[in-house]
């Protein structure tokens, strides 16, 4: 870890670091409350963005990442299920022998995607707790580029 990275995070107050960590850790709520993590990240972003641009950025990137995981999961699982039903009906039930196992795999794959997204968000919270800066690989870089352009 470079001194510049360490100073970037440690230059923020304890309250700021805690709010940024909570924004990332809020993804854990999605496992128990559906979209609870999205709501928590949104509340943190709305209440903290004027007080600290740094906390606002972390809350926003957590919000966008969690929303992306949710949308991708719903779309992938939904498409597989719709195609499975279409194949089953189009083949008068014969395709069911293939479609149903694939649909079940997609269902559990959706849980795995949400779990992986939650683990990655918790990793982000841990990185901040350790005093390191953190950005999500795709969404964080995208948000940084957009905020730099404005």
Describe this structure in words.
- The protein has 150 residues and is mainly α.
- It has one domain (3-134).
- Helices cover 81% and strands 0% of the residues.
- The protein contains seven helices and no strands.
- The chain has helices at 3-10, 14-25, 29-33, 36-48, 53-90, 96-129, 139-149.
- Helix 2 runs antiparallel to helix 4 (36-48), helix 2 (14-25) packs antiparallel against helix 6 and helix 5 packs antiparallel against helix 6 (96-129).
- The longest helix is centred in the middle third of the chain and has 38 residues, at 53-90.
- The chain is elongated.
Main attributes?
single chain, 150 residues, mainly alpha, 7 helices, 81% helix, disordered N terminus
Number of helices: 7
Report low-confidence residues grouped into runs of 5 or more: 1-7
Characterize the biggest β-sheet.
none
What is the 3D shape?
A: elongated
Question: Radius of gyration, rounded?
Answer: 19 Å
Terminus-to-terminus distance: 29 Å
**Number of spatially distinct domains:** 1
Briefly say what this structure is.
The protein is mainly alpha-helical.
How is the topology of this model organized?
Elements: H1 3-10, H2 14-25, H3 29-33, H4 36-48, H5 53-90, H6 96-129, H7 139-149
Helix pairs in contact: 2-4, 2-5, 2-6, 4-5, 5-6, 5-7
